[in-house]
Amino acid sequence: MKVDGLWRHPIKSHGREALTSVSLRAGEAMPWDRVWAVAHEATRARPGEWAPCANFSRVSKAPKLMAITIVLDEAKGVLTLSHPDRPDLTFDPDQEPDALIGWTAPLVPQDRALPDHIMRLDGRGYTDSDFPSVTLCNRASHRALEAQMGKDLSIHRWRGNVWFDSDTPWIEFDWIDRDIQIGGATLRPRERTDRCLATTTNPETGKRDADTLAALASFGHQDFSVRCEVVSSGNVCVGDEVVLV
Known about the structure:
By secondary structure, the chain is mainly beta. The protein has helices at 97-104, 139-149, 212-217; strands at 2-8, 17-19, 21-24, 36-40, 69-73, 78-83, 86-91, 115-120, 134-138, 162-165, 180-182, 185-194, 223-232, 234-237, 242-244.
């Protein structure tokens, strides 16, 4: 089993970016993953503290956000966002938060709590878990779902961090509370990733076009991937072996 994809999502629910390598740190999420989140006008999130996803603008409520891609300039702290229906936006989320709020205005439903301001949480990140997590996704599980649905699906529906290929669908669920060596890092899956309406949305178009939740239910659950704690720091690269310790 080998790593065949690494992805980060610097702004929660607002874009994805491919990596070839990453340095994971014990007790933290993937560097720069979900460091920022867009709080809506009804949020109860407080600065400097983790909060559940219901406090933020997200794909399950605004599907058009799914079609965003993103590039982060780490040195400058500048992001460039692209979307098929919008001109590219390059901005500093800490210095120019209103630029993003205005840019996403045509992409979010106006009858829901609207985007209001950007929040930042370094290291911990605004992951969907109540602990700093890295999601580990199995290509075989993805293929099993495609076969069940009879159609090709983009892996970006799952917004995962580390993708690996194997011959066995759902094997990752058997790894809960066991250590996994990936490159130079050790990860420990702590829970399955329960899925929501966001995964029904096409990442290329931002339109809901596939009942992934019903397809998952046919396997007896509505989960995809596992959320892992990084227990030992190290570098992970595309092509690294994935080994159950």
